[in-house]
Amino acid sequence: MRRLPLLRGGLRMRLVVAFALVAVVATVTTGALTFRAARTDLLQQGQDTVITQFRDEVDGAAPAVSFPPSRTDLVAFASSVSHSQRTANWRVMATYGDLTGTSRPGDTFAELTREMRDSVRTKAATVFQRVSTDHGPALVVGIPVRFGSTAFDGSAGSSGLAVFLTVSQDSEQGYVDALVAAVERATVPALAVAVLLALLAARGVLRPVRALRRATRRIAEGHLETRLAVHGSDELADLSHTFNDTAAALEESVAELRRMEARARRFAADVSHELRTPLAAMAAVTDVLDEDAAQLDPDTATAVRLISEETVKLARLVDDLMEMSRFDAGAAGLHLDEVDLAESVRRSLAARGWQDTIGTRLPPPDTARGRVDPRRLDVIVANLAGNALKHGGEPVSVAMSVQEAPGSGPVAVIEVMDSGPGIPEDVLPHVFDRFYKSDTSRTRTEGSGLGLSITAENVHLHGGTVTAGNRPGGGAVFTVALPLRRDA
């Protein structure tokens, strides 16, 4: 079901609309009930007054009627009753059997229904009815004339004479119209007051909600000490208490995690530092053994070479752990120098003997100059190129281009591509994680398992970005973007 646009608005709008709807319903209902009660009382009062006056006039004129009356007597009787009210425009008709006499010659009393005639004749009771005529609303009253009683209390029999009255209700209708206008005029101020109250109520409701939103944002930004001021004891106060308790628990949990992380980093740094001295001695011994390996028997020579290789790997792991410890401690710094990045890439490949193994597409000299840390740039290129050679497929190539980044100036984009099977989609988000291994991925079965993590940290130190992906034609591609201009 599609939601109305208004229902998708803010909480303030929904509260105002809700209050306004309640106000409209309450105002209209109250106005309708008040109008109905006032209209009923007004019409009832006017009706009772007319009926009472009509009865009095009929009682006063009935004794002068001779029985059985003639048409002339009926006309005289109707005229007598009609003219008794000089302020009211009464139309009167008197009937006796089939004879009829009216206060106005030729008046047919079209608004008088047969049912009213029959009720007056058969029930011998006073009847009345409000009708609509061509000249507006009117009240029709029928009264039977009884023998021996002018009070018409039913103690005497009917004389057969019936008198009917039609009187205009224009004045009563005017009062009703004025009442309707008054209700309409009162509705607008009532709605205005309701909207004002809605705004005030919305403000009172939304103030703690806005405070909760601000506090939640501060928590998301890392300000875990944020707390809400609690006022009252309603549901919003309970929500504020719950938020404060949750924030306190979260702060304590994060603090404990940070303490554990700090201990783990300190442990890794201490272990790495303590291992460097014995590793240096081991490396020196293995160097000597490597020189004499040719003079040893084959099994001993194989064991010596294996120890030498594993010692080198262990030394590289310790160096990488020390480097990661410096990153974690925030102690890793940049030693910037203005260099030609393309030339630096060539030197990195040449220093490792990869200039003939890895193809390059680099810009002309001095095209990509920028302030970078040459040592860390060398680590970035070496780790990515070595990773492509070990876990990708040849041919491997390194490409560099200079691009303009909106708002940040020129950027050197370095791409390292291989022709291997690529990186599985479920592994891509984790390739820069420390020690991440996947049986189906291009796992780093040799080395420390920290090469790509160290690469990412070095790129981030320069304010750049590094991403991993797959080429449409097959193979993986690592893309590094480094700003070419940095303040010293």
Written account of the structure:
It contains nine helices and twelve strands. By secondary structure, the protein is of the alpha+beta class. It has three domains: 5-175, PAS domain (Beta-Lactamase, 2-Layer Sandwich); 235-329, Orthogonal Bundle (Helix Hairpins); 337-483, Heat Shock Protein 90, CATH 3.30.565.10. A five-stranded antiparallel sheet has the order 2-1-5-4-3, sandwiched between helices. The protein has a five-stranded mixed sheet with strand order 7-9-10-12-11. Strand 1 (90-96) and strand 2 (99-102) form a beta hairpin. Helix 5 runs antiparallel to helix 6 (298-329) and helix 8 (374-391) runs antiparallel to helix 9. The longest helix has 58 residues, at 235-292. The chain is rod-shaped, with a radius of gyration of 52 Å. One of its GO terms (cellular component) is plasma membrane. It is an enzyme of class 2 (transferase). This is Sensor-like histidine kinase SenX3.
